Amino acid sequence: MSPAPSAPVISGAGISRIGRRTGIPGLDLTVEASADAIADAGLAPADIDAVLTMGDTPADEAAAALGVAAAGEQGPMLGRNGLLTPVVAARDLIAEGRARHVLVYRTVQMIGGTVDRGAAERVPASGGKPAEGGMDMTEVGYLLAAHAYSAANWLALHCRAHMDRYGTTKEQLGWIALNGRRNAASNPLAVYRDPMTMEQYLGARMISSPLGLLDCDVPVDGSIALVLSTPAHRANAPHGAVTIEAAGGASGAGGWTGRPDYPKMAMHDAAADMWSQTDLKPADVDIAELYDGFSYLTLAWLEALGFCADGEGGPFVEGGHKIARDGPLPLNTYGGQLSAGRMHGYWVLYEACQQLRGLAGDTAIAERPEVAVASAGGGPIAGCVLLSC
């Protein structure tokens, strides 16, 4: 397909070493991924006009270590586009003519390195909704009082409601985890690559019913970086560029439990926002890299994005055929966060770019895709992007 001529592009992508409890400093991981992304875009550090990230290795430290003269900017941990807020902010800087090339990265560490240092300043002392991010602290307080201490508990409530309303089964949910593990076997960077059976999935330790251990993503150390550029740079990008066709986001509406259409989440609003910006439709999407912080989130994203109707996510993934690498909608081709590792939505975006540019290597699908969707987030905060080559 012909790319949108005026839309900013992703011209470079880089990934660091990935592992569990590596002990590698976050700055080192950041520099690995960022230097690779800059070189992949055919640029030098001096070409970078801005450095954006969210709540991890400080952007000013990363800029200095890379030799980037531009000042780094530590964005909000969770803005309107959720975990993808820095990516959309970079796109807007370029679209508005305020930058030519912007480096965006996300670095995570299992021990330290993921703290949003500005979060305390953005939460009013009296409680209630913070200035940014859409997290209603009063609601969180109610959940904590009910001994629902984490997103695992909160998403388990959504999942159970979906099961009760639509007949979704634990086995259907398992196909998302099994598909991810099957794809991770082809990814040398994935932390879990051994085959998984449905029996193993069903027998895994329960975390928060109905979500078991294998429904939960895998914490890792690592970094992923992207370079966003003006559309004019497409011709000079040595490994091709990916156009950002549309980006949707939503934050706050209904919180975790207050939506009138519960168990729907902000992802439905983010998806509607994204589709409103393009003539492309779900049927045009060749590959989906969807957030799987918990397996149920992926099923919910499939419904929100219109790949199947409300309540039909279970039958859509059942058997794993439709979402397989050779199926009509290849899903999380690198293994996803359930098997490859939790990179807070940035590995899904990296993989989508590599697939579209023909650089996915061992995880590539048979026929190079032309349109991809990537998503991140759940609950009251979500973001998604539509990409084309």
Radius of gyration: 19 Å
Shape: globular
Order of helices and strands: EHEHEHEHHHHHEEEEHEHHHHEE
The assembly state of the depicted protein chains is: single chain
Number of strands: 11
Bin the helical content: 25-40%
Strand count, sense and barrel status of the largest sheet are: 9 strands, mixed
The strand line-up of the biggest sheet is 3-2-4-7-1-8-11-10-9
What do the pLDDT scores average to? Answer: 90
Structural class: alpha/beta
Count up the helices.
13
Termini gap: 7 Å
Low-confidence stretches: 113-134
Strand % is 15-25%
Q: How would you describe this structure in keywords?
A:
11 strands; alpha/beta; 389 residues; nine-stranded mixed sheet; 32% helix; 17% strand; single chain; two-stranded antiparallel ribbon
